[in-house]
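Sanity check

After download, print the first record. It should look like this:
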Amino acid sequence: MSAINQHFSSQPGLNLIPLTIPLSCFLQAGTVSILILLVTQKVASRALVSMGEASEELFRGDRLPILSFPDYHKLNND
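Expected structure tokens:
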């Protein structure tokens, strides 16, 4: 094996002949993506909970208009 091939094969990581990507780059990319997913999940869950609370407030009985129903006795007498 020539000295160039030994140099490329001795480095850990993805070995593309003209370009070697170290394993630490893969580790950093994986860590950042996992952290972004965790933060996104937490924000999404808080947003869904707040939307649920807002819709619950919308349909509470004290905020709905009072409907005037006809009296049952008046309907029977007519």
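If your output differs, re-run the checksum step. Summary of this record's structure: The CA atoms of residues 18 and 72 lie 90 Å apart.
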